Amino acid sequence: MTTNTNQNQINQTAVLDGFESIAWKWMRYSGLLLIPLAWGHVLIQDVLVGVHSIDLDYVALRWASLGWRVYDFLLLAFAFAHGVNGLRQVLNDYIRQDSTRTKVTWVLLVLWFVLSLIGAMAIIGGVRIPEV
Amino acid sequence: MDSLKLNILGMARYRGKVGQLSFILHRLAGLGTLLFLAVHILDTSTVYFFPSLYEHAIEIYRSTPFMIGEIALVFFVIYHGVNGARIAIFDLFAPDRWNVETQRKSAIWSLVIAILIWLPAAFMMGRSLLVNNFGL
User: Which residues span the domain enclosing A64?
Assistant: First the structure.
């Protein structure tokens, strides 16, 4: 039998499935999915199109195709849930009291829900060109 | 100022060296992107809720400080993605490779790859800034 002499080897332990374990996996799987989603969005809107070419008509034109609406909806759902959970994990590193953690988690949950709802309503409702 | 610095670094203390720098940069990039994302959800939502305000929001993004911020934001998004992919791939598919030496090397590689991807994007956004805001 060969022994592993690597002193840096980290012992692996089984982790029970719980909320934090699911959140840990969520960050990794959603993060991998966000690489094409977020990078694609940044490449098109920031690098290729640019903010000087973006206006109401541009958004209306883009959202005229269902595919881009689905894309933006997925980006909104995955990016914001990934980000708010990331903020929760960062804050939990600095908050020592369980009661404070619970309060912060509720605040973040409400923030996540309200902003996701606003964004989802806009994507579903679409652009309303103002009457001149 | 010194005591504030110590407190902040003391709170964020980890393992030191490359690992800690990559940990801090990853978190700052993530938090910065989240802050922008929250604002961006609200400004884009005006196309449905208050369409007449959308042009005002875009006008702000077209200003020079915000376009410089945009170039920094794109670096954050790229670095957070490359470094996050490194962490996710090691965690999910090669957990037995988690050792100090491999992590130090891969953390440096993440930064190098992120900068290489960012440079052409920064060049194009920088050119757009000069053309549109300075008439060059």
Answer: 19-125
Q: Out of B52, B74, B95, whose CB is closest to A12? A: B95
pLDDT tens-digit readout, B15-42: 568 888 999 999 999 999 999 999 999 9
CATH 3.30.200.20 fits B15-134, yes or no: no
Residue A115 covered by a domain: yes
Concatenated DSSP letters of A3-43: PP--TTPPPP-----SHHHHHHHHHHHHHHHHHHHHHHHHI
Q: Which residues of A touch B34 (CB under 8 A)?
A: 83-84, 86-87
Backbone phi and psi for residue B123, each to the nearest 5 degrees, phi listed first = -60, -45
A122 part of contact set with chain B, CB < 8 Å? yes
ipTM of the complex: 0.87
Tell me if chain A has a CB within 8 Å of the CB of B96.
Answer: yes
Q: Taking the domains of chain B in order of start, what are their residue ranges?
A: 15-134
